[in-house]
Amino acid sequence: MNVQIITNSNCQSAGDALREIDCMGVIRSDPFVLISDGVVSNIDLRCVIAKHKKAKKVDPMRVMTMCFKEADPLSSLRPVLDELVVGLDSETGQVGILIMEIISVTPKQ
Fold it and tell me: DSSP assignment of the chain, as one string?
């Protein structure tokens, strides 16, 4: 396994990061792993990668497999202003993701 660390402070989302590294032409392996900053994990990625490869054989258009871990609502690991809702299609196994930004509105006096 070859690990190359690339940083870019202009990327605001995983999509931004994927577009940036695609433009750089640095992705030469399939699959590759993209990890957000602040992530510390001991997950065995071999199992995740094997499942991704198996799913990609069934659906060649599959571009991403994501790993989630539930966090306590009061955990310091959770963003303060965002709420993530994940839904799973029981027929296809595909995940739908909705990120809701919680906006605090102060009434005018």
Answer: --------TT--SHHHHHHHHHHHT---SSS-----TT------HHHHHHHHHHHHHH-TT-----------TT-TTS-SSEEEEEEE-TTT--EEEEEEE----PPP-
